[in-house]
């Protein structure tokens, strides 16, 4: 890594992109994607595939992603693998940091080169970064705030970038859900993609599910539709009266960006009412964290977070281990789980909480991403668990 000690000591060549960390470290690279600059928290993602799904996951709002896998771009991009539902909103990640230049696409599903796709979505990128060193730095010091900038003419306001990186308040305490949640209610019936058929439709739904959209991913909606749900997606600030008036068979609490404690200020009272009503409830990631808050547990910021598609998790209710997709920088502090909330899943990487269930209630949630996209399908069974709870409730 190259570090400039003062703002004027430029080498003869001009880099076309920079990553400036809050501590003043400057990493030089080659610009790609959109020109401009963005501020966010740098996290590393260890997935070897699925960069398009990762970059369009709304949970990454406010973050800059460094991929540990060096060959990004080889399957190009397409219109089908986008995870953002609310296309009018800010796209997921604000920036992307790569080791090598984007690999040219070679895949039958590719419709666009990643570089052009990033440009079209306003995502700023840089390559030529020693991503192993950056990842090692995150592992030892935690996820830094940083400014990423791309300017073809090589002209940067380095002083301003350092100041912006230093002064950005960071994700702790930040509610980013308003940037990504849908502005209005809509229904969803598309089922998962099959290799020989593409997407399907759920035309005989067994359950009506209301999904509270804190930044929901498409594949969650598809898997819900796949287990028999007609899903009505509602904005994050929808009241519990409005939700319960729809007489849902189940309520889903989605993933999303930012600090659960900040979003929880308005989401937790709604979640409490939903639990009290006895409606089967399933939460994923931010939804899991806010369910934890709703029962009185606390959440905490993690040191390096979990972002990848290779995280082992143990389901303590069955003893089975599943390899999961993860994307979170906060976690439920298991030590604060109250009586009545049982830990059901744990991370086999660091023992952190990965799932809870409320005793005697049809309510459960997981910290990781059973919908994958990208990632292994080991955890798809959780959607079936939710359907089973709704079926039991309906026939009770
Ligand atoms: N994927 C998510 O829902 C992420 C939840 C939360 N924003 C976190 O970083 O922990």
From TrEMBL:
GO molecular function per UniProt: ATP binding; carbamoyl-phosphate synthase (glutamine-hydrolyzing) activity
Pathway(s) where this gene product acts: Amino-acid biosynthesis; L-arginine biosynthesis; carbamoyl phosphate from bicarbonate: step 1/1; Pyrimidine metabolism; UMP biosynthesis via de novo pathway; (S)-dihydroorotate from bicarbonate: step 1/3
The enzyme's E.C. designation: 6.3.5.5
Region (CPSase): 1-199
Membership in a protein family: Belongs to the CarA family.
Subunit structure as annotated in this protein's UniProt entry: Composed of two chains; the small (or glutamine) chain promotes the hydrolysis of glutamine to ammonia, which is used by the large (or ammonia) chain to synthesize carbamoyl phosphate. Tetramer of heterodimers (alpha,beta)4.
Annotated protein name in UniProt: Carbamoyl phosphate synthase small chain
């Amino acid at each position: 890594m190259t570090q400039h000690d003062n703002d004027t000591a430029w080498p003869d060549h001009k880099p076309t992109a920079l990553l400036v960390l809050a501590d003043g470290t400057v990493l030089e690279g080659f610009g790609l994607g959109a020109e401009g600059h963005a501020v966010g928290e740098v996290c590393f993602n260890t997935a070897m595939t699925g960069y398009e799904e990762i970059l369009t996951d709304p949970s990454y709002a406010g973050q800059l992603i460094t991929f540990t896998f060096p060959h990004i771009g080889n399957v190009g991009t397409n219109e089908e693998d986008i995870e953002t539902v609310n296309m009018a909103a800010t796209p997921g990640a604000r920036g992307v940091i790569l080791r090598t230049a984007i690999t040219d696409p070679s895949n039958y599903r590719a419709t666009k080169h990643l570089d052009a796709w990033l440009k079209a979505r306003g995502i700023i990128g840089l390559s030529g970064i020693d991503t192993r060193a950056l990842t090692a730095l995150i592992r030892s010091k935690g996820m830094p705030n940083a400014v990423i900038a791309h300017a073809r003419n090589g002209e940067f306001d380095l002083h301003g970038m350092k100041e912006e990186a230093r002064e950005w308040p960071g994700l702790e305490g930040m509610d980013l859900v308003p940037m990504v949640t849908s502005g209005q209610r809509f229904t969803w019936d598309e089922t998962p993609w099959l290799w020989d058929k593409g997407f399907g439709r759920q035309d005989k739904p067994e359950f009506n599910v209301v999904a509270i959209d804190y930044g929901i991913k498409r594949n969650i909606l598809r898997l819900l539709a796949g287990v028999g749900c007609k899903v009505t997606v509602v904005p994050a600030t929808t009241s519990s009266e409005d939700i319960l008036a729809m007489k849902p068979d189940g309520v889903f609490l989605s993933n999303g960006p930012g600090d659960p404690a900040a979003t929880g200020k308005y989401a937790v009272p709604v979640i409490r009412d939903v639990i009290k009503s006895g409606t089967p409830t399933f939460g994923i990631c931010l939804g899991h964290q806010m369910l934890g808050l709703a029962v009185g547990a606390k959440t905490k910021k993690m040191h390096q977070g979990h972002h990848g598609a290779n995280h082992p998790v143990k389901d303590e209710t069955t003893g089975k281990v599943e390899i999961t997709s993860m994307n979170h920088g906060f976690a439920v502090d298991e030590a604060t789980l109250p009586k009545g909330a049982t830990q059901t899943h744990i991370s086999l990487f660091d023992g952190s909480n990965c799932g809870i269930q409320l005793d005697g209630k049809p309510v459960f949630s997981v910290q990781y991403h059973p919908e994958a996209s990208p990632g292994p399908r080991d955890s798809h069974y959780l959607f079936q668990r939710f359907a089973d709870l709704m079926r039991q409730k309906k026939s009770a």
